[in-house]
Design brief:
Blueprint: H1 2-19, E1 38-48, E2 53-56, H2 64-77, E3 93-99, E4 116-120, E5 124-129, H3 132-144, E6 146-149, E7 154-164, E8 170-176, H4 184-196, E9 201-205, H5 221-226, H6 236-247, E10 252-256, H7 295-311, E11 316-318, H8 325-333, H9 336-345, H10 351-367, E12 374-378, H11 380-384, E13 392-395, H12 401-412, E14 418-420, H13 461-465, E15 467-474, H14 484-488, H15 491-500, H16 509-525
Parallel strand pairs: 2-3, 3-5, 8-9, 8-15, 9-10, 11-12, 12-13, 13-14, 14-15
Antiparallel strand pairs: 1-7, 4-5, 4-7, 6-7
Amino acid sequence: MRLLLLISLLFTFTVSWFYGRDAPDRWSVGGVWPLPQKIIYGSKNRTLTYDKIGIDLGDKKDCDILLSMADNYMNKWLFPFPVELKTGDTDDFIITVTVKEECPAGPPVHGASEEYLLRVSLTEAVINAQTVWGALRAMESLSHLVFYNQKSQEYQIRTVEIYDKPRFPVRGIMIDSSRHFLSVNVIKRQLEIMSMNKLNVLHWHLVDSESFPYTSEKFPELHGVGAYTPRHVYSRQDIADVIAFARLRGIRVIPEFDLPGHTSSWRGRKGFLTECFDEKGEETNLPNLVDPMNEANFDFIAEFLEEVTETFPDQFLHLGGDEVSDYIVECWVRNKKIRKFMEEKGFGNDTILLENYFFDKLYKIVEKFRLKRKPIFWQEVFDNNIPDPNSIIHIWKGNTHEEIYEQIKNITSKSLPVIVSACWYLNYIKYGADWRDEIRGTAPSNSRYYYCDPTNFNGTDAQKELVLGGIAAIWGELVDNTNIEARLWPRASAAAERLWSPAEKTQRAEDAWPRMHELRCRLVSRGYRIQPNNNPDFCTFEFEEPPARKSEL
């Protein structure tokens, strides 16, 4: 017997040493992700049976957000594993939800409270929150406390006391539906997983050079020419559906329309794009910059963006501004009309001044919106231009964490708020557990997503207050409906914990991985395609593809 025990221990140690971590069957039980601000577990667990559990929404029983929450968790997420649900002779277990503020008619606004208190005893669970958004986060934490006890073959919940709130107000995912069209259903699945990671912003990079899937009612020629096909578009109803779905999960939807570059797909608007030329002076067929000479273009942009603000209710609007320099030579420097225009304006040969001219016009358009919006720009607008002092700078540059921190330091030193994506470019494919390990031989080298902290720079407290949070980006060149889910998750979960949890309590990925593994298995059991994240391991209940349709022949 002692020999068998010794062999077992030696095998476990060998597996741990070989893969650089603990044994593959070690994960947390009832671990909460992201890690709460304060969490104190009780010493006992409570058995849960589906026929003895209920939820009391109190005076908010008519709130659609809380009703949707109750339906999702009571009927799906609290009991997700493919096992027979037992009835029992246990006492009733009631989840009581108390929310102070009224049920909001619209999506969450920037800075809305997501704070909550959660207490789970052997007899009940009590949620207290200022807003419905806090109640949503509390309910997700409660669902993480539920686990399936293999030995007793029953669901159990851990007793606990939690106080929690997010570290940053902006915690999101960026999806790209231009390079590859993403179906509404696939987008909704990502929104569901986002809510399960307590993320609250979907940055929707709707259009780019490759295609224009946004349906404009005022300017139908845009998607008429720019979409891949008439099937590859989002109707106004599609967009409203996504926004409504996100709202029920406490998620804002921020659209991006990149200007003045990345605009080849806008070619349906006659005269909007600058003529571009190759080295021989011959016109190319890939114009990709807005024509700043045409005054009518600014009238068009104003009217188009007014429609966008009517479609998307969020108070932020992303207007791009990146990589203009990639097209300047072909589209501005080699264009005789543009050079003449620059001379007339006194710009000489300085294309940066022409770029400034464009953005000055764009700033004035944003100021006149009937529905006020705060603009977000990629960081080139800071690097090359004089940014609007009311704008937010979106950081995407930097090949190492140190380079990223220097970017954040420089921009916040000018009293400009920032959102950081450079830490989390998830479209880069790296072999290994890149959420926690440095994967060499890849570009950029800023893997170890869990360790990138947007305030870990040498700056003042006032500068660090200007860091609004971060958005993990999944660019679409090699990402579509078939792989976006596994490519995003659970790697984006590392960013979710970094942006929600206290920095001082989340210093070591080695301490986090057992909870991340439990999170992955929980999401797999809920029916999502979540890729392995910690080398060889397993889930008690593995992912199952829906059965293939039988032939009707």
